[in-house]
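User: Hey, my collaborator sent me this sequence without any context and asked if I could get a structure. I don't really work with proteins. Can you help?
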Amino acid sequence: MLCFPNAKINLGLHITEKRSDGFHNIETVFYPIDWKDALEVLENKNLTSGASKCQLHCSGIEIAGANDDNLINKAYSNLSARKSLPPLNVYLHKAIPMGAGLGGGSSDAAFFIKTVNTQFNLALSEDVILQEAAKLGSDCAFFVKNTPTYAYEKGDKFKDVKIDLSAYSILTIFPNIHSNTKLAYSRVTPKKANINLIDFLSSTKPENWKGVLENDFEESVFYHFPEIKKLKDQLYTQGALYASLSGSGSSVFGIFRKNELPEAKSFSEYLISIT
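Assistant: No problem. I've predicted the 3D structure and written it out in structure-token form, which is a compact way to encode the shape of the chain:
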């Protein structure tokens, strides 16, 4: 079975407090975009003795680290403890860049769980699928429903939020820089949010977001990578109504009116996606 895991962007991101467990409480809104990987799951009927029961075959953008550490393999292992699964060949073509704040790895894992559930008639409820996805990372469960979602606490608690940007175009750019989450936190001072994200995003349009809707990681990421700040500024120069870093970076996105989207050649040196 073939599926196409998509990316997400963050509409606002507030780091509100340091937790006693060493993590941070945050609040943000995840919004799905049309930047996609390709994932195919096939039963492996010719498994060689001693080989992993989940054989991951990757193409496209190179994935750092060992295959065994990939979230798809971890998802297979977790599901196997719950249900009987056959050996699998999993073919993943990566188009969503990593270290970009777009959630590509989390999306691949969530779509893998949903696909395996359907393909092999596991009859897992949506609640169970959400539980399995949540084991793999704080944003992984978002991709189960894959609709605009307010995330809070460690980014692993969710509420539905009504936001529709279909009347706009979203240009997302990866500047070929891998942003490290630890580095992104290095200059962050937790503080109370200046707005209620759900109320603000539900009641205003992107025309009114500039200067109000903030990503608290920008100060730190832009300090370490000023070229990313220049890219955000360029989006505004090109006519974006709103532009921001996504997540902890390094991708930035701009929201444009449909008839005012800049030519793709303006950003030809980067990986881009238009939603």
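In plain terms: Residues 2-159 form a domain with the Ribosomal Protein S5; domain 2 fold (CATH 3.30.230.10). You can pass these tokens on to your collaborator as they are.
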